[in-house]
Amino acid sequence: MSSVKCYMFNVHFWSALLDLSFSFLTSPYILFPYVAGYGSGFLMWLGVSPLVQVSIVIIEIGLTVMSILVLFENRFTILGSSSKVWNRFRKIFIVVLYVFALFYIIPFSLLVPDQEMAVPMILEKLPSLRCFYTGPVIVFTLDATLIGWTTAIKLTIEFLFILIMCIMTYLNIKNQNKQITLSRKTLSLQKKFFISLITQTAIPVAVIILPLACCAYSVVSDYYSQAVNNVCFLIISNHGLVTTFAILFIHKPYREATFPCLETKWRYKTDVVISIVLPTID
């Protein structure tokens, strides 16, 4: 457990920061099927450029995915990777993915069209928008094809790598179980912990993937519904909360550390109330 603590903290940190950005810092309202929108978060109140806000959120998404990837790569390396080629190659591969996650948005920021021309075009296609919103709208691109395909390829590579790491780690644990290179108890704990990690990660990822699938369908079918867009991003902004509950209910050490603290606090409050209410006896 100690060898994976920092990696689990890394996943939880970026998940929490991403939630904070979605729900408070940026609060984006995206106008799918068009790559346009507006923000109503704290950064908009501070006067931060919408392009900077979008860049922050996209970078955080990339680093959240990378934190999951590094977590499972660490499990694979710790639990049985004996390949010298992979041990030499892994650091370079991970650094390349991190660089791509950090600077992925920069080329697309150069494609932002002239807003005086692009905004009227989007508003003409969305006449109902001005019925409930009269503020500024930012158009990031008029053609989402390049961004869509690049993002799809990037996410496919990352999640395919995570899937391969999961399969290889499971096979290593299974092979160790057959060869009895470790004690049965140790192998059982490793297998149980690995399955818990997969479950812990799969639940919040599903919370993100399903809304994004709805957004992708909106883009492909050229269907606009601001209600659907808002619900999708509301669900995404709560994925960290889902992650927290998943950690508490899946990992026993977290439950043992959290629930007794709450119980002790509740008992303390109860004792204080009782000590005040009970009358004194002369």
UniProtKB/TrEMBL annotation:
Q: Where are the transmembrane segments?
A: 12-31, 51-72, 92-112, 152-173, 193-220, 226-250
Which Pfam families does this chain map to? 7TM_GPCR_Srh
What's in the keyword line of the UniProt record? Membrane, Transmembrane, Transmembrane helix
Secretion signal, residue range per the UniProt entry: none
List the PANTHER family hit by this protein, alphabetically: SERPENTINE RECEPTOR (PTHR22941), SERPENTINE RECEPTOR, CLASS H (PTHR22941:SF18)
Q: State the protein's name.
A: Serpentine Receptor, class H
Q: Which organism is it from?
A: Caenorhabditis remanei (Caenorhabditis vulgaris)
